[in-house]
Amino acid sequence: MASVVHVVWWLLTKGYLPQPFIFFSFDTFMDWHNPGYWAHNPGTYDVWQSVYPPISFVFLRLFSDGACYTSSAIVARDCDLVGRTSILGFWVLSGVVTFLALRRIDRSTALLRATALMLGLPMLYGLERGNLLIPCYVAFVLAHSRILKSARLKWLAHAVAINFKPYLVLTLLPLIVQRRWRWFEGAGIATLVLYLITYAMQGGGSPLDIAVNTQALAALQSSGSWSDIYYATSFSSMVRFINSDFPIAYYTGSKILEQLTFFLPLLMRASQAAVVICFVLSFLHPGAIRARYMTGAICAMILTSSSPSGYAQIFLLFFVFMEPWRGPTRITMLISAYLVSISYDYRIFDVLQPYFDSWLTGRSVQMEVGVAIGQFVRPALLLVIQFGYVTLMILSLVRSVRRKRAREARRVSLLPMSPDLAPSGG
């Protein structure tokens, strides 16, 4: 809450949101209005080369004013009251469903944790961007909580979340590991049907279109620029940045950089291998590990491996905040979750920025941004959470195996003794 107050103070006094919010002060809400323009105009996948799935444009046609998108997305932002209202409305709705979901787990902590999620950095960052992650998150919570009673409605919620953010298809893996075939088929079929419907409505957005455009975007982002680590979730961006032409060795020295480029990839591979091993062992012992441990581990691995934008942390934080404040592993994970929710960063050195117009305040500003401590700390905290889930899964497996052996020992002890082995009288 103190960091939120600091953000508001910074905005009012300096005219823009501080780091780690995006360093383009003129770009507020444009993750909504840029695709919104192409939702109402042709050329989505061939001209704009979008990586958004078709549902994004179908959704935006419903929740934006098409009359505002005749000239440009910038003009539409000031015109589209429906869009701005929808952004704020889905943000409020995300807080409501989060509170209801957490309240079914622990009434005493639900309000505080829902507030941390709603006002934490990942959600506020997504809100400032106007990103479609927010309505996606609402569907995600409905799919992974006990709010909905109907299995079919949960399958539909899975389908909506996955169609918005295709990497969330990995969250169906626990259903396979636990051999819940009916649920896997239901969610999978719902996802495919929804994709086909939105593909037909949009008239484009095939997997090949999205794959080609994603590859082109990845090629542009592979140079390892400072912007790649600005709000990174993975050390992979940090390694690319260290190996880039940016003179970071001038500030840190070359020896520590050599150690980082060796140690960080090794640490990431170890975290990935640990999760995969736990999943294999869980498949061999179905039911030994809670589904939420596995889903949380998948959300963490997505963040620490592929480095999506920082707002994607909200999926992981939702699962972490389901855990009770009990035991060193869970407490460490919860503390890490609260730390990555803080909307504050401390700059080590500045990266000079030109003057930009701030859309939020209508002022011309020169933003104070640069290489900061949080860019190193946040990926580390996410790895702490990932290894925390690995620990919880291993402990669950060990307890399950012990219980199974204890049951077998009791069963053997209750078997009738063979006459040949019975003690002889005398």
Element layout with pairings:
Blueprint: H1 2-14, H2 30-39, H3 54-62, H4 73-79, H5 81-103, H6 107-119, H7 121-129, H8 133-143, H9 151-164, H10 173-177, H11 181-202, H12 207-220, H13 235-242, H14 249-252, H15 254-284, H16 291-306, H17 313-320, H18 328-340, E1 347-350, E2 355-358, E3 363-366, E4 370-372, H19 374-414
Helix pairs in contact: 2-3, 2-4, 3-11, 5-6, 5-8, 8-9, 9-11, 13-15, 15-16, 15-19, 16-17, 16-19, 18-19
- Poorly predicted ranges (pLDDT <50, ≥5 residues)? none
Q: From the helix content, strand content and strand pairing, which structural class follows?
A: mainly alpha
From the spread of the alpha carbons, the general shape counts as: globular
User: Distance between the terminal alpha carbons, to the nearest Å?
Assistant: 82 Å
Mean pLDDT: 91
- Classify the beta-strand content into a percent band: under 5%
Query: In angstroms, what is the radius of gyration?
Result: 24 Å
Helix fraction bin: 55-70%
Number of E-type strands: 4
Major sheet size, sense and barrel closure:
2 strands, antiparallel
Element order, helices and strands? HHHHHHHHHHHHHHHHHHEEEEH
What's the arrangement of strands in the largest beta sheet? Answer: 1-4
Number of DSSP helical runs: 19
Would you mind describing this structure in some detail?
This protein has helices spanning about 1-15, 30-40, 55-60, 75-80, 80-105, 105-120, 120-130, 135-145, 150-165, 175, 180-200, 205-220, 235-240, 250, 255-285, 290-305, 315-320, 330-340, 375-415, and strands at about 345-350, 355-360, 365, 370. About 40% of the residues are buried. The chain starts with a helix and ends in a 12-residue tail after the last helix. By secondary structure, the chain is mainly α. The longest helix has about 40 residues, at about 375-415.
